[in-house]
Fold:
Amino acid sequence: MTTTKGRRRRPRSGWNPGDKQAWRERKDLDKAIANDAVVKAARALAEHPELIDAFREYAARVQAHRTLRNTLALLGQNPSATRVKSAFFWAKENRAVLETAEPMRIIARRRGGKRVEEFDDPKTGETEEIDAGAWTGFTSERVFDVRDTTPKNKPCPECGTHPGLRCPDSCAVYEIVRGPAPTRDEVLELLDQVLKDDVGFYPADLDDSESEDGE
Structure:
């Protein structure tokens, strides 16, 4: 017998115009916070280039599939972060985000959801539903560090901590997972671009020469 799975009600389908407007305003604010964090981190690294290698190590543990620009945004909001995911992806690891946790904001690609395709999975015999919409732009996304999470529906498989309670600092869930680090050239190129976008020029473009009128 063929069953259907994957169908779910869109979370905003029952919203009234006021709900949708509040959601848009929150998204716009989150975008502004993410962009401000990028500039803040870029300025700090430009002023203290001796910290670039430390940033490269930071990126190696938090960047994952994210852009280097988003990694700058994370640095500007939580320089001590180690593993970063959205609440949705933490739930897939049986982790729940603390209600008191302060989210970090990043910019993510947005996929249009108006077109849905179905296909029959030959391995399971089930009908799957996939979002086949095209990428339509960018939106904000809220993400959280692993230390802002607790076990969700069952005890932590690493230390046995019960749902809703914080795992001890010794828990393996906090172990750093390191990926590839960006090169110094990649970081410098990004700083150059961010600061030019922010102020119209990069500080390194300036020299010590006087203006023609002596000022």
